[in-house]
Amino acid sequence: MNQYRLHERTATELMQLLNNADVTFLDVANSFVERTRLLDPLVHAWASINEEYIFTQANKMNELFKQKIQLPLLGMPIGIKDIFNTEFYPTQKGSLAWKNYRSGNDARCVSYLRQAGAIIFGKTDTAELAVHANGNTLNPYNPLHVTGSSSGGSAAAVSTAMVPLALGSQTGGSIIRPGSWCGVYAMKPSFGLIPRTGVLKTTDTLDSIGFFSRCVEDLKVMLDVLRIHGINFPIQEEKIKSYSGVKKKWRVGFCNHHLMKQTKTYVQDSLEKLKKVLSNLDGVEVVVLDLPESTTRCHELHRRIYHPCLAYYLKTECDMGPDKISDILKEIFEDAKTIPPEDYKVALHEQALLAADIEQFFSKNEVDVILMNSSDGSAPYISEPSFHNDLNPLWTMAWLPVINVPQFTCPDGLPFGLQVIGPRFSDYKLLTFLEYLKVNKMIPQQSEIASISMTQPQGLAV
Question: Do 176 and 306 share a domain, yes or no?
């Protein structure tokens, strides 16, 4: 077993080893448990974890394997962001108000994972009620820097190879941004493609579910398992099929936008170099475009939807008293009072118009994918007040599929990502495009493994 260093393997590689009977399900579980024992006292990626429960699940998967039952995630350890209901683990939502709360059931997507044979490894740390206050997790590349919003625990757990896969959620940029700053692959599928039943609700039209991995192949497996399927979802199925097929030439857009001046110079330089290299590929046509004028108001529109929803859906937590909530959440609740209730309906209409503008932008310009930075730079220091100067809220409001690729490194050695964006329900098309880039050695086959060091400025693999 030791020759395989199992924690370093992707889920796809592990499943091949298991299918070949080269290792056992207990071997796999034990490797990630030992890894977590070693690193989590430094990273703090887990809100709750139970080794006995992990091994009980591994034994059950072994019995299923003996019965020759084929499941797409059989024996794969998966971290669950601590806003998803789980039958065994508590669901504490990063909040003092929910300390030790047990839902007694699984969120639907957790149930899908369990049905696919996954091992529910533990609950990953999250920001308070999945909003903006920093959670406990430290950045695996430098503990003085943030992980990037509420799915930071999941991103860090995958980045440090404590699990090969993890669930996250995004209402603004909480999947893509942590993926960027923790140096892993991350995917937010099209809005409405993954059911949200049993997951903390903060908004109706923004909350999205996604996942983290260390390779493209694993993203596809997760999408296959988690998305809705079948004749009961004809619109989604028809749209997904409309984007299938092999492309002879990819039309790739690089876009000018209103936040470009706030983007770090090294980010712009990295994108420019990538654009030049892509232009030399026979299978790619690069175009430079201006985003629609409506996108310049995306952050203010996001606020007009997000803050009133938080005040409404988190009223229980607000009423529990000031000692139960952070100053950041208090400020949001106060800001929500300045937004007239009748404006919410107006904002939802504007969101639909914005989504239509973006959809038309793809169609009119015949663009297959847009390539853009996932964040305005590498992870800022924990002490820095704001880190939302990117277009993640735009793509979330437009309900589009987006993927972070661990592509770049800043001058200080910290990672930041390349974001791949496509029309709504073109999720598999994005994955096909990444496979094309991988074949041409344009993106990493796998993300690097980080292990946090309290004495070194950058993460060092062990």
Answer: no
At 192-250, the pLDDT tens digits run 999 999 999 999 999 999 999 999 999 999 999 999 999 999 999 999 999 987 788 99
Structural domain count of the chain: 2
> Do 343 and 390 sit in the same domain of this protein?
no
Residue 250's SS3 state is strand
The residue to which tokens 């310049």 are assigned: 296
Question: What amino acid occupies position 333?
Answer: F
The CATH number for 34's domain is: 3.90.1300.10
| Same domain (yes/no): 337, 405 | no
In terms of phi and psi (left: phi > 0; alpha: psi -120 to 50; beta: otherwise), the region of 391 is alpha
3-state secondary structure 252-303: EEEEECCCHHHCCHHHHHHHHHHHHHHHCCCCEEEEEEECCHHHHHHHHHHH
Q: How far apart are CA 82 and CA 235, in angstroms?
A: 31
**Close Cβ partners of 250 (under 8 Å, ≥ 6 residues apart):** 283, 284, 285, 368, 369, 433, 436
0.85 surpassed by pTM: yes
Check if the beta carbon of residue 177 is closer than 8 Å to that of residue 374.
yes
Q: Which token pair is 159?
A: 């980045």
Dihedral angle over CA of 84, 85, 88, 89, nearest 10:
50
Domain hosting 330: range is 295-348
**Phi/psi at 246 (nearest 5 deg)?**
-90, 135
Query: Distance between CA 335 and CA 311 in Å, rounded?
Result: 9
Residue 85: helix, strand or coil by DSSP?
coil
Residues 145 and 238 in one domain: yes
CA separation for the pair 359, 381 (Å, rounded): 36
Whether 236 contacts 189, CB under 8 Å: no
- Give alpha helix (H) positions in 162-203: 176-182
Residues forming a β-bridge with 77: 119
